[in-house]
Amino acid sequence: MDALDLNPDKYRLARALRPFSYSVALVTCGLGVVLAYQQGVGDWCRALLVMLAGVLLQAASNLANDHADLVLWKKRSGELARQVVKQIHRNFILAGVCALIACMMGLLLVIDVGWPLLLLGVFGVVGGYFYTGEPIVYKNRGWGVPAVFLFTGVLMVSGAFYAVGGYWNNEVVWMSIPVSLLASALLLSNEIRDYLDDISHNIRTLTVRMGLVPAKCLYAVLLLTGFPLSFMLYYLGELDNPLYLLIALPFAIAPLKLLANHSGDAEMVRLPPLTGRFFIIFGLGFMLSIVF
Fold first, then answer.
1. pTM of the predicted model, to two decimals?
2. Total number of domains constituting the chain
3. Sign of the CA dihedral 94, 98, 103, 108?
4. pLDDT > 80? residue 115
């Protein structure tokens, strides 16, 4: 498949920001904040900084995600290719601005909470960079899904709790697992949608490496496992009322139905936003299960 078969519209700012993916930052940071308040160590100023920084880092990650496509478009000639290259460069610069502002907010939190938070933040930023950054590039090694589970899920929730509450809590790590699995499912939905493009451009994502059918099975497992894990947390006394999670169950039907389509079907473009919708509804239900 020729590089110009890539849709140039996906690099436009409104598309490159990937609005559906902000459910990840809102849910993971929000969960950390809610857990801090549940423990009686909440601070509204630090909570606001955490939420804003989380959204900005998500924006930076989304805008920088397409930077690896530069090599494909620079091989082409013509006005379209030149415009796309310029847009990718602009998005990458804006990603740097978002990341810089988020890091400044993080430094304010470090001053208030302590230097260990700085180490945690650096670990998260560096880990996130290597999703598409050289020399590691998790995406091409098939490590994207587990990397998102760790950096965008567990670390975001635990880090948000630490930044707001002022101390590390191992129980928060366990509480983060259901939403961390959904963060991985959201990335996997992108890989499933882009399966044919990734094969044609030799991008060795997890879905390409394991095959489309196993990837779809893994997606379904990641999407639904949060329910039994949450009821297990209830049994262990960590959740007060897991019935709030049932609100999200009907919203799992639409993305699961899409899995019956072939990867090249136009309908598959709906898989990531539907997954993002399910994620945010599940996340809100999960937080309600903690509070009430």
1. 0.85
2. 1
3. positive
4. yes
Say if 1 falls within a structural domain.
Answer: no
Predicted confidence (pLDDT) at residue 196 exceeds the cutoff of 80: yes
What does the chain come to in residues? 292
Contacts 24+ apart (CB under 8 A), 2-9: 3/72, 3/73, 3/75, 3/76, 3/201, 4/76, 4/80, 4/81, 5/197, 5/200, 6/69, 6/72, 6/73, 6/197, 8/80, 8/83, 8/84
Domain that holds residue 80: 8-291
Whole-number percent of the chain with pLDDT over 90 = 53
Category of 148 on φ-ψ map: left (φ > 0), alpha (ψ -120 to 50) or beta: alpha
3 inside domain: no
In this predicted structure, the answer to whether residue 50 has a pLDDT above a threshold of 50 is yes
Is 243 inside a domain boundary?
Answer: yes
CATH of residue 76's domain is: 1.10.600
Of 136-140, 198-202, 235-239, where does mean pLDDT reach its minimum?
Answer: 136-140
